[in-house]
Amino acid sequence: MTQSDHQYHPINSYGVIGDCHSAALVAPDGSIDWGCFPDFDSPAVFCRLLDAEQGGYFQIAPTDRKLGGKQRYLPNSNVLQTTFTGEQGRVTLTDFMPVEDLSAWSYRTLNNNTWLHENGSCHSLVRIISCQDGHMELTMRFKATPNYAISPATVQLIEEKSGVICTSHEQHVGLAILGIHDIHAFSIHMEHGPQARHATIIAHFTLYEGERLTFALGVGRSQRAVHRLVSWDLLQRNFDWELSHTLSCWRKWIAACEYDGPYAEWVRRSALTLKMLCYAPTGALVASPTTSLPEEIGGVRNWDYRYTWLRDSSFTLYALNMLGFTEETRAFTRWLLHLSYTDGEDLQIMYGIRGERELPEKLLTHLSGYRGSQPVRVGNAAVKQKQLDVFGEVLDCICLYWSTSNYERYGEQPNGPLWQLLSILVEYVCQHWQDTDNGIWEIRGEPTHFVHSKVMCWVALDRGIRMAQRYHLAADLERWKKLRQNIHEDIMVHGYNPVLQSFTQRYSDTALDASNLIMPLVGFIAPDDPRMVSTVERTLELLTDQQGFAYRYRNEDGLNGDEGTFTMCTFWLIENLALQGRVEEARQLFERVLACAGTLGLFSEEVSPVNKLSLGNYPQALTHIALINSATTLHRAEQRKKDDKSA
């Protein structure tokens, strides 16, 4: 380990806060090491996560750096608290991003963003540091590095040194400090380190029992706007009320969760995180609020996930629907309808959060990457890929939404514009299911016949048929049914290897792929079909590590570096075991994942560094989705087992 490695925290040790517009990662030492404002896809203002030397950060912590913090979420919320305890006292740092409400906005235009006010004061990040016992010397370090630390910035302290303004050509950031006249000691100054392109503001202060300071950060469109924000607007706000209101909003939302089975705390925590990844202005969902975190230290598999994949979004909405949350699906479908398309060929696998079609990928060569893991990427070239599975995932999600009559709650009719879109997607699958594609894992090589893609083409037709029959919608049903049967037969002939006794990654292949574990979960094959039972056995034998955690695949994919285990695949394996009646085996693996993953995906209210299951962008929506689905499947399987014993 190099000296600089000591400045990096484990990826899974971070707490995450957000307001359904953006998010920030908070380390256990009180440092915000990643933050894009005002939106998920805005250039990062704090990016020490990707370069410990050059990247910006915002830390509030004891001056004695040996005092580590313990993090937890306030119950049923995304408000994070970090507590520092020393011999002379105890302080608590409360971090949150205020919300007005958690309802998705009505879709208006592709230009939707968070700039409701010229100075951006409607969205901010608030940090309240308070002393509960004794006293403690504390230090604040504020280093803003606009535009991923590319842009030089001008930093200045405002009047009475109660705030900071950092401006560049691209971004304008302001920090207001409230309460400095109510404490015994406070000093603040600016430092320029050797060869540092960005100044650091350092404040020293001591808090005694009952005392506190509030730090409020916001962004503006101009230097003038951010100056007013710091010198006036933020000072007029009642952050105690905003904290109370934000807690109330999160708790009111999660109270609608209909799941009451085992692991309910983990399920609710995952649901809260998924909601935090919803972009309120449009209804889009980001796969993760971070970019370029590696699958292995020093590896090159570092991608930007701050965009909306139709697949990941459909998975997210499916999971939320399972828990009783429907508004998010309605908002997403309205976003989907406003995308520019004429047929299935126009439908991309991913978009920007406002519906942007162009997401050019570029390298930030000036950043060293997390623990030296380069390259650091912004944008995602996978936007140009062809992935046939997305059609099935979109239709599966909408089918579930309609099957529970949720559309009636909002006064919608199944035979409207959404069905026109869905029928176009089904027709596209009818014409193109025999095409090659890049598959669910976005393998950057020559397109081929992926088994999972073919299965999801079958799902697209199956769900289209179901919806057309149930709601008497216009469709070429006989043709659709015939093609559905043709796809099923084709997969059984070319996608199953009788010698290996397993479904494979590609047609007429021997390599395994954990994505095939989704087959019984979408109704393509019975979970106790001998071919599925043997596929699970081959997966356990050849596609898991010593703890039973599943890899996506193990064969060459054209990229340097190795694959890490993939949490979602492990949860798919758990679901298969449960559906096959191996309930105790499934439960033990489920609990091993929770124990080993710890905060990877923020499964519980407590946040503490533990052994990580794998690296990767954080927090990934897929992890939470899979946990919710696994918990509900395992719960149903356990109930069936109890009922069978009673009978």
UniProtKB/TrEMBL annotation:
Transmembrane segments: none annotated. Pfam families: Glyco_hydro_15, TREH_N. This is Glucoamylase. It comes from Ktedonobacter robiniae. It comes from the Bacteria. Residues 262-630 form the GH15-like domain. Signal peptide: none annotated. Residues 7-180 form the Trehalase-like N-terminal domain.
